[in-house]
Amino acid sequence: MDESPKDICVVTNSEKEGLPPSHPPSNTNGAAQQKPEDLVARAIAPVKREFLRPPPSSRTTQNDAASDTNVKQSQSNVVKEKKSKRQLKRERRQEQKSALNLCPEIAKTGDVNTCPYKDKCRFSHDIQAFMAQKPADLEGECPFITADAPCPYGLACRFAGTHKDGASAATANVLKKSSEVNGLSKDVQKLLWKNKMCFTKADSVIKSLGLMGPNLKTKKLDDKEEDEVVLNGSQAADETECKKVADDSVDCSDCPPTYAAPDNVEEACATDELRPSKKAKSVVDEMCTDEVENGATVLEKDIEKNSTETESVHTVDDVFAEPDISLKIHPREKKLIDFREKMYLAPLTTVGNLPFRRVCKILGADVTCGEMAMCTNLLQGQASEWALLRRHSSEDLFGVQICGAHPDTVARTVELIDKECTVDFIDINMGCPIDIVVNKGAGSSLLMKPLRMKGIIKAASGTVDKPITVKVRTGYFEGKNRIDSLIADIGSWGATAVTIHGRSRQQRYSKLADWDYIYQCGRKAPSALQVLGNGDIFSYLDWNNHISDCPELSTCMIARGALIKGILACYNS
Fold first, then answer.
1. A Gene Ontology molecular-function term (predicted)?
2. Is 550 among the domain residues?
3. Which of 23, 55, 74 is the last residue of a domain?
4. Are residues 244 and 294 in the same domain?
5. Left (φ > 0), alpha (ψ -120 to 50) or beta: where does 254 sit?
6. How far is CA 266 from the centre of its chain?
7. Domain boundary residue among 49, 74, 99?
8. Is there a single domain that holds both residue 270 and residue 402?
9. In terms of domains, do 335 and 414 share one?
10. Is residue 196 part of a domain?
11. Which of 564, 559, 495 is nearest to 533 (CA)?
12. pLDDT per residue over 246-282, tens digit each?
């Protein structure tokens, strides 16, 4: 539609603020006769006169403003009483108990007896009061009708009038359980909170690799001390009997006159009771059968001997308690995932949540991965971090991405995920450029520590049977690429696949990805290691070009292209 200069009017600042213009527009003079191009050049919006709204009079606006200020002043003159925490808590409870907030369990089923909390429930159980104040239903039908699934909102749904009769909450719960998996149970969470979770596989692998840190050793000794304290406390009667046996076993006729055998024995027993010996149980038992030779007891020698024997017994027990490392599955027997020519959706931290992955799965994504989760947060049982590991039933090839700085934490996290979650592979992020992650020694800071990378990959791959993949960048500093020198070792360490982002940590997401370097790494990689490329794939043409230019690449990972240009929808079409 052509715009003539006569139809264009200038919107000035005074008109935007609601004040009358100082010079009313005219059709013959002023800026109204200017062309739209001239107005745009002067940063003035050309608007047609028919779309302009006449500004209100200044008197009315001033009167309204004055009245508003008077009302505010009158309200401010009234001193507001500061409510205590108890009053605020009471009001919150009253709001929850009001008819507006119906119990979710009762809303699903329509039965008051289905609430597990009964009278202790924080929400209202009055269905009639809720239905009386509920607004009218919206136009249309409930979207769960077309999905042949019961509505999880029940009576609280704004389309409740279109619900089918007989929809029960049991079917809704079954649907929820079948659609989403990888939840954290309360029992496991309590064990993680109290730091009582057992990681036998991870600890044995870390010990075999020689990566057992001092913290793990001290924790093991502390556990032994706690057990022995309980045993010593339960055998106080045995110690008293021991003194009697020791006194009876002493024969004063055979003792030289320079020694007082009974006194020495009693002093030795007394000192043993006061000494905080870790092996007090075994020492006391042996003391009961000790005899005095030449008027002097041989308790000191026997204590040393018995302590070494008990230490050897504990070490033997520890060896039998740990799983046999020789029985672990050979790398050739592990499950492998073929990523070749599969559409791989990147984890996309803070964006790639479960609903987004479901949409991408419908649009053609073959492989999906959860958002990055920190190992320390998972081991602490944080519910917000475990929510990142959730999986939908439509994700047939799904993995989780974790990030850690030390082999022991990564190995324990991998073992915990293997026990509690259902995943197809576990990805270790060694390319995260975030400062908080890098300062802790994780993420892309591992690119400068190849020995640490080796320990993490070996510990993770030796703990579980699932495939372990790694995500890296070209290097830490710009212009100093180093993954090409580690690509062969990464495969020998136990990784199944490696994803290379064609940028350094210093680049972050600026400049273009170096795909020539990704091709170079793909050609140097061993045949058993799958190499995936990542960076600047915004169309299906880019994806096809990278695969055709370097046949050694298994596939390409799509990250921001799925957000900006909808590459998945374009590729699927």
1. zinc ion binding
2. yes
3. 74
4. yes
5. alpha
6. 59
7. 74
8. no
9. yes
10. no
11. 559
12. 444 444 444 444 444 444 434 444 444 444 444 444 4
- E strands present in 425-529: 425-429, 468-473, 497-501
- In a domain, residue 209? The reply is no
What is the phi/psi pair of residue 288, to 5°? -65, -25
Is residue 308 exposed (0-12), middle (13-18) or buried (19+ Cβ within 10 Å)? exposed
Give dist(CA 337, CA 137) in Å, integer. Answer: 49
- The one-letter amino acid code at 453 reads M
Q: Which domain holds residue 145?
A: 85-181
Per-residue pLDDT of the chain (573 residues; tens, 9 = 90+): 444 444 555 554 444 444 444 444 444 444 446 788 888 888 888 888 888 888 776 655 555 555 665 555 555 555 567 788 888 877 777 766 677 788 888 888 888 888 888 888 888 888 888 888 888 899 888 888 877 677 888 888 988 888 876 554 444 454 455 577 888 889 999 999 999 999 999 999 999 988 876 655 444 444 444 444 333 444 444 444 444 434 444 444 444 444 444 444 344 444 444 444 444 444 434 444 444 344 444 444 444 444 444 444 444 344 334 455 445 666 666 678 899 989 999 999 888 999 999 999 988 899 999 999 999 999 999 999 999 999 999 999 999 999 999 999 999 999 999 999 999 999 999 999 999 999 999 999 999 999 999 999 999 999 999 999 999 999 999 889 999 999 999 999 999 999 999 999 999 888 899 999 999 999 999 999 999 999 999 888 899 999 999 999 999 999 988 888 766 655 555
Determine the pLDDT at residue 89.
79
393 and 181 Cβ atoms separated by less than 8 Å: yes
Q: Whole-angstrom Cα distance, residue 280 to residue 307?
A: 9
> How many CB atoms are closer than 10 A to CB 16?
10
20 and 57 inside one domain: yes
Say whether both 388 and 293 belong to one domain.
no
Phi-psi region of 309 (alpha: psi -120 to 50; beta: other; left: phi over 0): alpha
Residues 35 and 93 in one domain: no
pTM comes to 0.60
Active site residues: 432
Consecutive H or E run containing 400? strand 398-403
Mark whether 452 and 531 lie in a shared domain: yes
Residue 199 included in any domain: no
State how many domains the chain has: 4
DSSP symbols for 19-42 = PPPSS---SSSGGGGS-HHHHHHT
Write the Ramachandran bin of 51: left for phi over 0, alpha for psi from -120 to 50, otherwise beta.
Answer: alpha
Residues 540 and 445 in one domain: yes
DSSP secondary structure string for all residues of 223-258: HHHHHHHHHHHHTHHHHHHHHHHHHHH--GGGS-TT
Which secondary structure element, helix H or strand E, spans residue 436, and what is its range? helix 435-439
Taking the CA atoms of residue 333, residue 335, residue 340 and residue 342 in that order, the dihedral angle to the nearest 10 degrees is 180
**Cα–Cα dist 424/337, whole Å:** 8
